[in-house]
Design goal:
about 150 residues, mainly alpha, 3 helical TM bundles of succinate and fumarate reductases, about 0% strand, binds protoporphyrin IX containing FE
């Protein structure tokens, strides 16, 4: 086995300060948040999968009317809202950690984080708008595609 010297590690530097850089206990809370949100996501995601795919008529039943019927109920609006926000906060925080681990140049870190936070904000805003502004009975749509309560 050829001798391979240990790789040189950069001398540890003082904590970075500045734009987008957390200080104090923030990273400990971020670590804790990943565990707590992970547990909640298991309940929310498996509850979502069970109700959509197992308890009813399975995947064949999922269409526009199915979604419209679910979102007519404030419980499912709230369920989907919390699932969206938690998954996005969890996923965004996870990718933030990956960027901190792998992107070494400060400019690259900043660039990746601007793209990350920008796209996360877009998905959260659009997703939230869809949940609350969704129209289950769009005018001049074929009645057989709409939930039954639209025809009454
Ligand atoms: C089923 C529910 C989920 C559980 C139990 C869970 C749990 C976890 C835990 C404990 C971590 C931290 C790992 C570490 O620090 O080494 C983590 C990291 C991560 N999670 Fe999740 N997660 C779930 C769902 C999701 C979802 C839905 C997304 C995407 C939206 C996601 C994206 C990520 C990412 C990007 C990381 C960072 C990976 C890394 O540091 O290497 N997770 N997850």
């Amino acid at each position: 086995m050829p001798y391979r010297p240990m790789p040189e590690l950069a001398t540890p530097r003082a904590p970075q300060r500045g734009l987008l850089h957390r200080q104090g206990n923030a990273d400990m809370y971020a670590w804790l948040f990943m565990r707590v949100s992970g547990v909640l996501l298991v309940v929310l995601i498996f509850g979502h999968l069970f109700v959509n795919l197992v308890s009813g008529r399975g995947i064949q039943a999922i269409d526009f009317a199915f979604v419209a019927g679910k979102w007519a109920n404030p419980l499912w609006q709230l369920w989907d809202l919390i699932m969206l926000w938690l998954a996005m906060a969890h996923g965004t925080n996870g990718v933030r950690t990956i960027i901190n681990d792998y992107a070494e140049r400060p400019g690259a870190r900043l660039g990746f984080k601007i793209v990350l936070y920008g796209s996360a904000a877009l998905v959260v805003i659009l997703g939230t708008l869809v949940i609350f502004t969704f129209n289950p009975c769009p005018p001049s749509s074929p009645a057989d595609l709409l939930p039954s309560f639209c025809n009454g």
